[in-house]
Target: Si:ch211-212d10.2
Amino acid sequence: MASGSEDDGGNTSGAAWRLVGPASELSKKPCRLMFSPLGRDSDVCLFYVQRQFFAMDARCAHSGGPLCEGDIEEADGVLRVFCPWHDYGYDLKTGKSGTSLEQQVYEVKLVDGNVYVKHASHLSLRPFPANQKN
Ligand code: FES
Model:
Protein backbone atom coordinates (compact mmCIF):
# COMPACT_ATOMS: atom_id res chain seq x y z
CA MET A 1 0.00 0.00 0.00
CA ALA A 2 1.38 3.40 -0.93
CA SER A 3 2.30 5.62 1.99
CA GLY A 4 1.90 9.05 0.43
CA SER A 5 5.42 10.18 1.23
CA GLU A 6 7.31 7.83 -0.98
CA ASP A 7 10.24 9.16 -2.96
CA ASP A 8 11.45 7.18 -5.90
CA GLY A 9 14.63 9.21 -6.24
CA GLY A 10 13.55 10.86 -9.46
CA ASN A 11 15.72 13.53 -10.99
CA THR A 12 13.30 16.49 -10.88
CA SER A 13 15.16 18.79 -8.49
CA GLY A 14 13.67 18.62 -5.02
CA ALA A 15 10.53 16.92 -6.28
CA ALA A 16 8.95 13.82 -4.82
CA TRP A 17 5.78 11.91 -5.49
CA ARG A 18 2.92 13.55 -3.62
CA LEU A 19 -0.26 11.68 -2.84
CA VAL A 20 -3.25 13.75 -3.95
CA GLY A 21 -6.16 11.37 -3.47
CA PRO A 22 -8.24 8.56 -4.97
CA ALA A 23 -8.57 8.56 -8.75
CA SER A 24 -12.24 7.58 -8.43
CA GLU A 25 -12.92 10.92 -6.73
CA LEU A 26 -10.48 13.11 -8.66
CA SER A 27 -11.84 11.94 -12.00
CA LYS A 28 -15.28 13.42 -11.29
CA LYS A 29 -14.24 16.91 -12.41
CA PRO A 30 -12.16 18.05 -15.39
CA CYS A 31 -9.88 20.11 -13.15
CA ARG A 32 -8.97 20.37 -9.47
CA LEU A 33 -6.90 23.14 -7.98
CA MET A 34 -4.21 21.71 -5.74
CA PHE A 35 -2.72 24.09 -3.22
CA SER A 36 0.96 24.23 -2.33
CA PRO A 37 2.28 25.50 1.00
CA LEU A 38 4.94 27.34 -1.06
CA GLY A 39 2.29 29.87 -2.15
CA ARG A 40 0.02 30.73 -5.05
CA ASP A 41 2.71 30.54 -7.69
CA SER A 42 3.32 26.90 -6.79
CA ASP A 43 -0.32 25.79 -6.89
CA VAL A 44 -1.06 23.12 -9.49
CA CYS A 45 -4.02 22.18 -11.69
CA LEU A 46 -4.87 18.49 -11.86
CA PHE A 47 -6.76 17.92 -15.10
CA TYR A 48 -8.73 14.80 -15.95
CA VAL A 49 -9.36 14.63 -19.66
CA GLN A 50 -10.03 11.63 -21.90
CA ARG A 51 -9.45 9.29 -18.98
CA GLN A 52 -5.99 10.70 -18.27
CA PHE A 53 -4.60 12.93 -15.53
CA PHE A 54 -2.32 15.89 -16.29
CA ALA A 55 -0.70 18.30 -13.85
CA MET A 56 0.39 21.84 -14.66
CA ASP A 57 1.13 25.06 -12.78
CA ALA A 58 -2.22 26.62 -11.95
CA ARG A 59 -1.38 30.26 -12.77
CA CYS A 60 -0.92 31.17 -16.41
CA ALA A 61 2.62 32.09 -17.45
CA HIS A 62 1.26 35.18 -19.21
CA SER A 63 -0.32 37.17 -16.37
CA GLY A 64 -1.38 34.61 -13.80
CA GLY A 65 -4.82 33.65 -15.10
CA PRO A 66 -6.60 30.70 -13.45
CA LEU A 67 -6.03 27.77 -15.81
CA CYS A 68 -8.38 25.49 -13.86
CA GLU A 69 -11.21 27.67 -15.17
CA GLY A 70 -10.06 27.41 -18.77
CA ASP A 71 -11.70 25.48 -21.58
CA ILE A 72 -10.02 22.30 -22.75
CA GLU A 73 -10.01 21.49 -26.44
CA GLU A 74 -8.41 18.89 -28.67
CA ALA A 75 -6.98 19.77 -32.07
CA ASP A 76 -4.75 17.57 -34.23
CA GLY A 77 -4.51 15.07 -31.40
CA VAL A 78 -3.20 17.66 -28.92
CA LEU A 79 -5.14 18.52 -25.78
CA ARG A 80 -4.86 22.14 -24.73
CA VAL A 81 -6.21 24.25 -21.91
CA PHE A 82 -7.08 27.82 -22.87
CA CYS A 83 -6.54 30.51 -20.28
CA PRO A 84 -9.82 32.30 -19.52
CA TRP A 85 -8.11 35.71 -19.37
CA HIS A 86 -6.44 36.13 -22.77
CA ASP A 87 -6.97 32.75 -24.44
CA TYR A 88 -3.41 31.48 -24.66
CA GLY A 89 -3.51 27.69 -25.09
CA TYR A 90 -1.15 25.26 -23.38
CA ASP A 91 -0.50 21.65 -24.32
CA LEU A 92 -1.58 19.57 -21.32
CA LYS A 93 1.30 17.13 -21.80
CA THR A 94 4.20 19.51 -22.46
CA GLY A 95 3.01 22.90 -21.19
CA LYS A 96 4.04 24.50 -24.48
CA SER A 97 1.97 27.14 -26.20
CA GLY A 98 2.31 28.48 -29.70
CA THR A 99 4.33 31.35 -28.24
CA SER A 100 7.43 31.61 -26.09
CA LEU A 101 5.21 31.17 -23.04
CA GLU A 102 5.30 27.78 -21.40
CA GLN A 103 3.68 26.24 -18.35
CA GLN A 104 5.56 23.93 -16.01
CA VAL A 105 4.04 20.45 -16.15
CA TYR A 106 4.45 17.64 -13.64
CA GLU A 107 4.50 13.87 -13.89
CA VAL A 108 1.43 12.03 -12.66
CA LYS A 109 1.16 8.37 -11.72
CA LEU A 110 -1.53 6.06 -10.45
CA VAL A 111 -0.72 3.54 -7.72
CA ASP A 112 -3.37 1.33 -6.12
CA GLY A 113 -6.10 3.65 -7.36
CA ASN A 114 -4.46 6.77 -5.95
CA VAL A 115 -3.13 9.76 -7.88
CA TYR A 116 0.40 11.00 -7.23
CA VAL A 117 1.99 14.15 -8.65
CA LYS A 118 5.74 14.74 -8.67
CA HIS A 119 6.21 18.16 -7.13
CA ALA A 120 8.58 20.09 -4.88
CA SER A 121 6.00 20.48 -2.10
CA HIS A 122 3.03 18.68 -0.66
CA LEU A 123 -0.20 19.38 -2.52
CA SER A 124 -3.61 19.69 -0.95
CA LEU A 125 -7.11 20.04 -2.31
CA ARG A 126 -7.75 22.49 0.53
CA PRO A 127 -5.98 25.84 0.90
CA PHE A 128 -3.18 26.08 3.41
CA PRO A 129 -3.83 28.74 6.08
CA ALA A 130 -1.63 31.33 4.35
CA ASN A 131 -3.62 30.91 1.10
CA GLN A 132 -7.10 30.92 2.49
CA LYS A 133 -7.99 34.50 1.62
CA ASN A 134 -7.21 33.95 -2.06
S1 FES B 1 -3.19 35.52 -18.11
FE1 FES B 1 -3.41 33.71 -19.25
S2 FES B 1 -3.44 34.34 -21.29
FE2 FES B 1 -3.13 36.19 -20.17
About this structure: The first strand starts at residue 16 and ends at 22. Residues 60, 62-65, 83, 85-86, 88 surround FE2/S2 (inorganic) cluster (CB under 6 Å). Residues 1-11 have pLDDT under 50 and may be disordered. Residues 25-115 form a domain with the Rieske Iron-sulfur Protein fold (CATH 2.102.10.10).
